[in-house]
């Protein structure tokens, strides 16, 4: 049986789908999975060894050039590639109108959330198989339940496995234990103050960790340089392809991160991961992993470096005590 997964973005949403794939591999070994995803996240999907063909879309770019000939040729190419694969089923794990419009290009039956469960009820107009999944569950559990209903099994929700491993790479320039500080995030109100990152880096060096920072745009570059300038032992990784950053991340001992996709990736790798949420509710979309924890800023309050480091020490002790 050939199944296409449609989960185009964002990075965290893509990562939240991996446990559902793990359930399916266990319960339905007869299924071959392909995936349709936005171009920037294709490398993340490729981390899972069970995924075959990865079809790339560029919905965000196509919207800006909708009437350009190149855009129409790219969309026609996607349609042709999907139809050539002759899928038995498409699972729209996103539940949005844009994902449903991608799903129908495959010309196969589509399974997805029902009208009361989908994020955008209009998407369900394109589904042939619709399933009720409570909306007050974490995104990982919602997706696992959807896959189970669509493929005919009951997932074991007492376990959680992502099935991904870090890509090949190393930690050149890092002495001792690496602590990756993921300061970059998409919204200003999600950002931890730079002085808190600096204090965290200082305290990590006192604990014989080497702080690691990187950046993906000019605003993040200024923060990364400020941390490295204030704490000279910090390793500043230049702007790099996502696969290279994932390799370094996966070989770190500890990760402390803002509400960003790489923090979700760290938790999926099974790393001790402290997520700092300042403006968003982590209950339904926060990082999940065997050694992941989320610190939520109280109303009118903040998360302090001391709190983040105390939680990091707890997770590191938990990891050390876990069976190999």
Characterization of this structure:
With 324 residues, the protein is of the alpha/beta class. The protein folds into 2 domains: 2-151, Rossmann fold (3-Layer(aba) Sandwich); 177-321, Rossmann fold (3-Layer(aba) Sandwich), CATH 3.40.50.2000. It has 11 helices and 12 strands. The chain has helices at 11-27, 42-45, 59-64, 69-84, 97-103, 139-151, 194-206, 218-230, 242-250, 261-268, 305-321, and strands at 2-6, 32-38, 51-57, 89-92, 110-113, 129-131, 177-182, 209-213, 235-236, 254-258, 273-277, 292-296. The strands form 2 sheets. The chain has a 6-stranded parallel β-sheet, sandwiched between helices. Strands 9-8-7-10-11-12 form a 6-stranded parallel β-sheet, sandwiched between helices. Strand 1 (2-6), helix 1 (11-27) and strand 2 form a beta-alpha-beta unit. Helix 1 runs parallel beside helix 6 (139-151), helix 1 (11-27) packs parallel to helix 10 and helix 7 crosses helix 8. The longest helix is centred in the N-terminal third of the chain and has 17 residues, at 11-27. The two termini are 35 Å apart. The mean pLDDT is 94.
